[in-house]
Each structure stands twice: as structure tokens, then as C-alpha cells.
Design goal:
- The protein has 237 residues and is an all-alpha fold.
- Helices cover 77% and strands 0% of the residues.
- Helix 1 crosses helix 5, helix 4 runs antiparallel to helix 5 and helix 10 runs antiparallel to helix 11.
- The relative contact order is 0.12.
Length: 237
């Protein structure tokens, strides 16, 4: 993407972020309790009738940009309202748009902005992704690290979209890697929400057990690698 194209994307993303912020200030905080009550979430979304799909998509984008909103609640609620497949599609589209906005905001505002929003516990990620460069030795390739971070549970993935804005990676590469990495856990959340709506507790327990086995094993396998990367980042700082 040329320099003019990047400027246009940054400007468009900044305008969208401002519009979202203004809408949140006017309407969002009146419904903040819906993020802790799945039935109220469903009632609020369905109250928009034929526009409920767009409202949910908008909420998913908001959840990515305003990363302090719990993403799992939105995704489970999506499955509860629309079923696993439509909600998964809406969540993925919203995640792509929201992640692109977050990525471009950091790319425009830089590390000073990022250090203010990410907190001390995540500064090692900022340092690591800022220093890792494509073309250097394999274990310093930021693309590999980003994919692992999006794949395993327990990483603040929406904040990660902001952090990746300092990485040596293009917007296109970031969106492909992050979308593939977040897809399995996101689909599980949507499927879980759908089963909650049917109150199929046997299947819910089965899904939960599968999630714990697969993602728990994945977490254990990658934890050593992540801890090593974290230690390296702390030594290099």
C-alpha cells in the first residue's frame, strides 16, 4: 500500500473511531448493563428489528476498539441471538474492521499513545513487537509471535490489535494472521452461546470440556515459548 493509501486508511479509521466514541457517549453507557446480562443484550439488539444484524456488528466493532468491553460476552451473546454460523460471520467481520481501526490508530499515534493504554503488564509485548523485524532470524519474525498470541487463550486480543500497530508487519498481513488465529476460540464462543439459548446443558458441558482440553493443551505447549519471549523482552529493555 502506498503512502497516500495509508493516509486515507488512517483518516477513515480515525473518523470512524470518533463517530463510535460519540455514539458510545450518547447511547452506549445507557445500556452498559447489557454486557453483564445476556437476556438484556438479546432484548436490546432485537429491539432494532431488521437492523439487529447491523447493530450487533456495530457492537462487535465497538468491543474491539474499546477493548475494556469483554469480547467473550459479545460473542456468546451473538450465538445466543443469531445462532453459531451467522454470529460467527458477524463477529469475524466486526473483528476485522475493529482490529484494522485499532492497528491504524497506533500506527498513526505511535508508541507514546500505546504505552498510555496498554498497562505495565503488557509493555513487554510492545517492546518485543517493536524490535522484532521480518527478515531477521526466524524466532524474531513478528508474524509468528502474533499468530501464537492470537491463537492461545488468556492474551488480551483486542488490546493486541493496538500493540501490533508498532510491529514490522503490513495491515494486510496483520488482518490475515489475526483473523485466522482468533477464529477457533471465537467460533467456540458463538457455538457456546447457541447452546445456552437451547439450554442443552449436556452439550454445553461437552463443549466446555473440549475447549479446556484443546486450548488448555495449547496454552501449556506455548506457555514456555511465551515466557521465554517475555524474558528476552525484559532483558533487552
Amino acid at each position: 500500500m502506498n503512502k497516500m493509501g495509508r493516509r486515507i486508511l488512517v483518516i477513515v479509521s480515525s473518523i470512524l473511531a470518533l463517530i463510535i466514541l460519540l455514539i458510545m457517549m450518547k447511547y452506549g453507557f445507557n445500556h452498559k448493563s447489557m454486557f453483564t446480562n445476556i437476556e438484556q443484550f438479546k432484548t436490546t439488539v432485537n429491539s432494532y428489528g431488521s437492523f439487529s444484524f447491523l447493530v450487533f456488528l456495530f457492537i462487535q466493532i465497538i468491543q474491539i476498539v474499546f477493548f475494556f468491553i469483554p469480547g467473550e460476552v459479545v460473542q456468546v451473546a451473538g450465538g445466543y441471538i443469531f445462532g453459531p454460523y451467522i454470529s460467527f460471520l458477524l463477529c469475524m467481520v466486526g473483528a476485522v474492521i475493529g482490529s484494522a481501526m485499532a492497528f491504524l490508530i497506533t500506527r498513526k499515534l505511535g508508541k507514546p499513545f500505546l504505552q498510555k493504554i496498554c498497562g505495565k503488564n503488557n509493555l513487554w509485548l510492545v517492546k518485543k513487537l517493536d524490535k522484532n523485524k521480518i527478515g531477521e532470524r526466524t524466532n524474531r519474525d513478528p508474524r509468528k509471535l502474533i499468530f501464537i498470541l492470537y491463537l492461545i487463550p488468556g492474551i488480551p486480543k483486542d488490546l493486541l490489535a493496538y500493540i501490533c500497530g508498532v510491529a514490522d508487519i503490513s495491515l494486510k498481513e496483520f488482518l490475515i494472521i489475526s483473523t485466522i488465529g482468533r477464529a477457533p476460540a471465537l467460533f467456540f464462543s458463538c457455538m457456546f452461546g447457541d447452546q445456552v439459548s437451547t439450554k442443552n446443558w449436556t452439550y454445553i458441558i461437552f463443549l466446555t470440556a473440549i475447549f479446556i482440553l484443546i486450548f488448555g493443551a495449547l496454552f501449556l505447549v506455548t506457555r514456555k515459548h511465551i515466557n521465554k519471549i517475555k524474558s528476552e523482552a525484559e532483558r533487552e529493555s
